[in-house]
């Protein structure tokens, strides 16, 4: 099964972000987000999370070992406060909202979850997640294909515009409500089975942060 470790903000935080994104979508797409004019494929709110580590396809036995390793990691950590703040773009195609509050504690969890994967699977995730974030959208595949063919803009020889420039500017000043992170999750991802052809994410385990256990599962 395809697995990753993540933090899931509570509903009040997700609803606040959804309201902000609704204004961004209407202001930058010129149509409803589901409409054909949107150059951005927006991720559904039920999929919003802060990824700690991505493990890829793993056998069932390894999934159990990952859960045990993450249980040790989480039980050795204190709860901490986070908020969603600001925005940015990766590789000119992925729009993300950043993390404020105790971002250092989140980064430490990323490193710990990555190490759990290295121990259980025999290799570490190539990507080091030093900047925790929540992905909210990606440039649509047909728009990226047009870019790769060197498609031009409005017919006057100018390059096509950056589809994410507007959303990044609009979300650059965003700041959501704070919440206390009390658990991390091991999540199963099934590609294409979610709403609108997105991935379907299902919690395999919720593992409480509780340093009173001294790192014991």
What string gives the helices and strands in order? Answer: EHEEHEEHEHHEEE
The figure for the number of domains is 1
Please outline the major beta sheet.
Answer: 5 strands, antiparallel
Low-confidence stretches: 31-36, 142-149, 151-161
Cα separation of the termini? 23 Å
CATH fold field value: Cyclic Phosphodiesterase, Chain: A
CA gyration radius, whole angstroms: 19 Å
Oligomer: single chain
Summarize this structure as a short list of keywords or feature phrases.
Cyclic Phosphodiesterase, Chain: A, 9 strands, globular, four-stranded antiparallel β-sheet, 217 residues, alpha+beta, five-stranded antiparallel β-sheet, 5 helices
């Amino acid at each position: 099964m395809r697995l990753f470790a993540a933090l899931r903000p509570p509903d009040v935080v997700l609803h606040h972000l959804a309201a902000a994104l609704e204004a961004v979508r209407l202001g930058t797409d010129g149509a409803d987000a589901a409409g054909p004019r949107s150059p951005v494929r927006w991720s559904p709110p039920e999929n919003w999370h802060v990824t700690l580590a991505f493990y890829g396809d793993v056998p069932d036995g390894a999934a159990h070992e990952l859960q045990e390793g993450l249980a040790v990691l989480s039980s050795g950590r204190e709860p901490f406060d986070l908020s969603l703040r600001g925005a940015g773009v990766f590789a000119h195609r992925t729009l993300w909202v950043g993390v404020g509050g105790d971002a250092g504690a989140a980064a430490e969890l990323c490193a710990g979850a990555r190490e759990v994967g290295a121990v259980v699977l025999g290799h570490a995730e190539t990507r080091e997640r030093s900047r925790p974030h929540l992905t909210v959208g990606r440039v649509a595949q047909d728009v990226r294909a047009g870019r790769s063919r060197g498609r031009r803009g409005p017919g006057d020889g100018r390059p096509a515009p950056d589809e994410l420039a507007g959303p990044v500017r609009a979300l650059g000043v965003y700041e959501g409500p704070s919440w206390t992170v009390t658990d991390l999750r091991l999540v199963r991802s099934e590609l294409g089975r979610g709403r609108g052809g997105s991935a379907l994410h299902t919690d395999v385990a919720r593992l409480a942060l509780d340093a009173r256990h001294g790192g014991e599962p």
